[in-house]
Design brief:
alpha+beta; 60s Ribosomal Protein L30, Chain: A; 168 residues; 5-stranded mixed beta sheet
Length: 168
Protein backbone atom coordinates (compact mmCIF):
# COMPACT_ATOMS: atom_id res chain seq x y z
CA UNK A 1 0.00 0.00 0.00
CA UNK A 2 1.48 3.35 -1.04
CA UNK A 3 1.45 6.28 1.28
CA UNK A 4 -0.87 9.05 0.08
CA UNK A 5 0.64 12.48 -0.15
CA UNK A 6 -1.38 15.64 0.58
CA UNK A 7 -1.78 16.35 -3.12
CA UNK A 8 -3.40 12.95 -3.72
CA UNK A 9 -6.38 13.52 -1.42
CA UNK A 10 -9.53 14.38 -3.31
CA UNK A 11 -11.45 15.55 -0.21
CA UNK A 12 -10.34 17.26 2.98
CA UNK A 13 -12.34 18.34 6.00
CA UNK A 14 -11.64 20.92 8.67
CA UNK A 15 -13.15 22.06 11.95
CA UNK A 16 -12.89 25.56 13.37
CA UNK A 17 -13.90 27.15 16.64
CA UNK A 18 -13.85 30.68 17.98
CA UNK A 19 -15.37 32.63 20.87
CA UNK A 20 -15.29 36.31 21.83
CA UNK A 21 -16.81 38.33 24.63
CA UNK A 22 -19.29 41.09 23.90
CA UNK A 23 -18.01 44.61 24.42
CA UNK A 24 -19.48 48.10 24.28
CA UNK A 25 -18.36 50.63 21.68
CA UNK A 26 -18.07 47.88 19.02
CA UNK A 27 -20.17 46.92 15.98
CA UNK A 28 -21.46 43.35 16.06
CA UNK A 29 -20.08 41.66 12.96
CA UNK A 30 -21.15 38.08 12.21
CA UNK A 31 -20.55 36.35 8.91
CA UNK A 32 -19.48 39.63 7.36
CA UNK A 33 -22.84 41.21 8.25
CA UNK A 34 -23.37 44.02 10.74
CA UNK A 35 -26.05 42.81 13.15
CA UNK A 36 -27.94 45.51 15.08
CA UNK A 37 -27.12 45.01 18.76
CA UNK A 38 -26.14 47.11 21.76
CA UNK A 39 -22.67 45.50 21.86
CA UNK A 40 -20.13 44.05 19.45
CA UNK A 41 -17.44 41.43 19.86
CA UNK A 42 -14.09 42.28 21.42
CA UNK A 43 -11.03 41.36 19.42
CA UNK A 44 -7.91 42.61 17.70
CA UNK A 45 -9.75 42.45 14.37
CA UNK A 46 -13.47 43.13 14.00
CA UNK A 47 -14.11 40.07 16.21
CA UNK A 48 -16.30 38.23 13.66
CA UNK A 49 -16.37 34.83 15.39
CA UNK A 50 -18.36 33.21 12.57
CA UNK A 51 -15.82 34.12 9.90
CA UNK A 52 -12.95 33.27 12.26
CA UNK A 53 -14.31 29.76 12.87
CA UNK A 54 -14.78 29.21 9.12
CA UNK A 55 -11.25 30.53 8.48
CA UNK A 56 -9.83 28.09 11.04
CA UNK A 57 -11.82 25.22 9.49
CA UNK A 58 -10.32 26.00 6.07
CA UNK A 59 -6.81 26.27 7.49
CA UNK A 60 -7.28 23.00 9.38
CA UNK A 61 -8.46 21.23 6.24
CA UNK A 62 -5.21 22.29 4.56
CA UNK A 63 -3.14 21.21 7.56
CA UNK A 64 -2.02 24.78 8.19
CA UNK A 65 -1.69 26.70 11.48
CA UNK A 66 -4.72 28.56 12.84
CA UNK A 67 -5.93 32.10 12.21
CA UNK A 68 -3.88 33.50 15.09
CA UNK A 69 -0.70 32.20 13.48
CA UNK A 70 -1.63 33.47 10.02
CA UNK A 71 -2.87 36.89 11.19
CA UNK A 72 -1.32 37.45 14.65
CA UNK A 73 -2.92 39.87 17.09
CA UNK A 74 0.57 41.18 17.80
CA UNK A 75 0.74 42.60 14.27
CA UNK A 76 -0.67 46.13 14.08
CA UNK A 77 -1.59 45.49 10.43
CA UNK A 78 -4.50 43.37 11.66
CA UNK A 79 -5.80 45.87 14.23
CA UNK A 80 -9.54 46.25 13.51
CA UNK A 81 -9.08 44.15 10.35
CA UNK A 82 -12.16 43.18 8.38
CA UNK A 83 -12.50 39.42 8.89
CA UNK A 84 -13.97 39.17 5.39
CA UNK A 85 -10.56 40.14 4.02
CA UNK A 86 -8.82 37.55 6.20
CA UNK A 87 -11.18 34.80 5.02
CA UNK A 88 -10.72 35.84 1.38
CA UNK A 89 -6.95 35.53 1.83
CA UNK A 90 -7.37 31.99 3.18
CA UNK A 91 -9.72 31.17 0.29
CA UNK A 92 -6.87 32.14 -2.06
CA UNK A 93 -4.64 29.64 -0.22
CA UNK A 94 -7.31 26.97 -0.68
CA UNK A 95 -7.52 27.66 -4.43
CA UNK A 96 -3.72 27.83 -4.79
CA UNK A 97 -3.49 24.34 -3.32
CA UNK A 98 -5.97 23.11 -5.94
CA UNK A 99 -9.05 22.85 -3.73
CA UNK A 100 -12.49 24.41 -3.71
CA UNK A 101 -15.05 24.68 -0.93
CA UNK A 102 -17.80 22.07 -1.31
CA UNK A 103 -19.77 23.29 1.69
CA UNK A 104 -19.54 24.87 5.12
CA UNK A 105 -21.70 24.29 8.17
CA UNK A 106 -21.65 26.25 11.41
CA UNK A 107 -23.29 26.49 14.80
CA UNK A 108 -23.48 29.95 16.39
CA UNK A 109 -23.96 29.72 20.16
CA UNK A 110 -25.45 32.81 21.79
CA UNK A 111 -28.49 33.92 23.74
CA UNK A 112 -28.60 37.34 22.14
CA UNK A 113 -29.10 38.74 19.65
CA UNK A 114 -31.64 36.50 17.98
CA UNK A 115 -30.11 35.48 14.65
CA UNK A 116 -33.15 34.06 12.84
CA UNK A 117 -34.05 37.44 11.30
CA UNK A 118 -30.52 37.66 9.86
CA UNK A 119 -30.10 34.06 8.67
CA UNK A 120 -30.59 34.81 4.98
CA UNK A 121 -28.14 37.74 5.02
CA UNK A 122 -25.55 35.67 6.90
CA UNK A 123 -25.89 32.78 4.47
CA UNK A 124 -25.66 35.08 1.42
CA UNK A 125 -22.61 36.91 2.79
CA UNK A 126 -20.66 33.74 3.55
CA UNK A 127 -21.61 32.20 0.20
CA UNK A 128 -20.33 35.31 -1.60
CA UNK A 129 -17.03 35.32 0.32
CA UNK A 130 -16.45 31.60 -0.34
CA UNK A 131 -17.71 31.89 -3.94
CA UNK A 132 -20.22 29.06 -3.50
CA UNK A 133 -24.00 28.77 -3.70
CA UNK A 134 -26.11 29.79 -0.70
CA UNK A 135 -27.44 26.22 -0.52
CA UNK A 136 -23.91 25.10 0.43
CA UNK A 137 -23.78 27.27 3.56
CA UNK A 138 -25.36 25.97 6.76
CA UNK A 139 -25.88 28.20 9.78
CA UNK A 140 -27.62 27.04 12.93
CA UNK A 141 -28.17 29.43 15.81
CA UNK A 142 -28.40 27.86 19.25
CA UNK A 143 -28.98 29.35 22.67
CA UNK A 144 -26.92 28.20 25.63
CA UNK A 145 -29.90 26.72 27.49
CA UNK A 146 -28.00 27.53 30.68
CA UNK A 147 -25.06 25.28 29.78
CA UNK A 148 -22.46 28.06 29.65
CA UNK A 149 -21.17 26.98 26.22
CA UNK A 150 -21.12 30.72 25.72
CA UNK A 151 -21.70 33.07 28.65
CA UNK A 152 -25.36 34.15 28.32
CA UNK A 153 -25.50 37.77 27.20
CA UNK A 154 -21.73 38.13 27.47
CA UNK A 155 -20.16 36.11 24.64
CA UNK A 156 -20.71 34.34 21.34
CA UNK A 157 -19.07 31.08 20.28
CA UNK A 158 -19.04 29.35 16.89
CA UNK A 159 -18.15 25.87 15.68
CA UNK A 160 -17.68 25.42 11.92
CA UNK A 161 -16.83 22.58 9.58
CA UNK A 162 -15.87 22.61 5.92
CA UNK A 163 -15.47 20.10 3.13
CA UNK A 164 -12.93 20.82 0.42
CA UNK A 165 -12.63 18.96 -2.87
CA UNK A 166 -9.77 18.82 -5.32
CA UNK A 167 -10.57 20.04 -8.77
CA UNK A 168 -10.00 17.39 -11.44
Amino acid sequence: MSRLEHSEFRFRTGIGFDAHVLASQRKLMLGGVEIPHKQGLAGHSDGDVLLHAITDALLGALGLPDIGSQFPDTDPAYKDADSTDLLKEVCRLVRNKGYRVANVDSVVICDEPRLAPHADALQASIAAILEIGKDRVGIQAKTTEGTMLAIPGKSIAVLATVLLYREQ
